Amino acid sequence: xxxxxxNKRVLEKNDDIASSLNQYLHDRGxxxxxxxxxxxxxxxxxxxxxxxxxxxxxxxxxxxDLYTDSDAKRIEAFGVKTIQLNTYGACHLEASMIxxxxxxxxxxxxxxxxxxxIGNLVCTAEFKLGEDKRITVFSVTxxxxxxxxxxxxxQTTDILIINKMDLIRHTNFxxxxxxxxxxxxxxxxxxxxxSAYRNEGIxxxxxxxxLLNE
Amino acid sequence: xxxxxxNKRVLEKNDDIASSLNQYLHDRGxxxxxxxxxxxxxxxxxxxxxxxxxxxxxxxxxxxDLYTDSDAKRIEAFGVKTIQLNTYGACHLEASMIxxxxxxxxxxxxxxxxxxxIGNLVCTAEFKLGEDKRITVFSVTxxxxxxxxxxxxxQTTDILIINKMDLIRHTNFxxxxxxxxxxxxxxxxxxxxxSAYRNEGIxxxxxxxxLLNE
Lengths: 214, 214
Known about the structure:
Low-confidence stretches of chain A: none
Strand order of the largest sheet of chain A: 3-2-4-1-5-6-7
Order of helices and strands of chain A: HEHEHEHEEHHEHEH
Oligomer: homodimer
Shape of chain A: globular
Mean pLDDT of chain A: 92
Distance between the termini of chain A: 51 Å
């Protein structure tokens, strides 16, 4: 019982920090995107495909990981300002961590900050990070039963990107049932399909999701 | 800071319950297995392939899910005693929940209890559930960089099953690097390869992992 109370206090405090962070960035004309999904859903690969197509000087990336900096190195190779956040085992990022990361960033010329969240379909969904939009990356190899099993992630996302579409013919993933379940949970959710690995379907995501002037 | 202290107390209390639960089951000649992995790694499909091959009267299954009972229904169809544990949003199972589930089970004739854990590569690894063995199911579509990114799961598992081997040729999964990283973290880890969906490689897992007399 005590744990739940503490958790509630943590969430309320987190939401306050997230709101003020969102306002801080709005005042500077900067958009904050939160990229979520399971480990291996393809978040970082998708981000690489996006960075290949945009003016990287306008973008900063905050990489969330338990321990390593391997994803941050992949992203930094594009010449993007990158901050690595290591949680040392904790399963989610919190708004206070993002605030700290943003204060470390030189925001001059930055129009979009993208958070590449920790791989987790449960805990990360609970924590607002001050984002304008949540983008969830979900791969067809994860199975079409997941929206009903892990509803919070699908309820709270603004955009859902179905990744690894090149593998769908090798699986029993029922995309119609999947979309139906997502829209039952979240009628406003925008759904896109792509294969980040095969570099297919990226332009649609780019134009609509990131609202960048190229 | 306070959250971490509470978390530590929770983990210590959990470990005590797990130890006494393990002793309780040992005294009755029952083995407890903990099946872990990300959402969509193939835990429940693998369990189905196993149940097709064994005497189901000797097995009970505890299904962990946030809300649904869809997996429990899939397992119950095999005539296995099944208990559904719903955490209502919480990201992991705790030993006290397993204890409660086991007290609900008629243990007469049961030799093996299998916990089909919540899909999560982070939080579930922290909680001992009184198991004799941890079995982690990991699919090649999740990427070979994950052991170093999510080390606790790979450090604490006794057996690692690489699933979806039928898809490996469509991915850039480097199985040699993957195994090298797993064994660096956990030299004792037993690794098996299979495709639960294609029903391939199941017999080896069955004989060695479940120690069942068929």
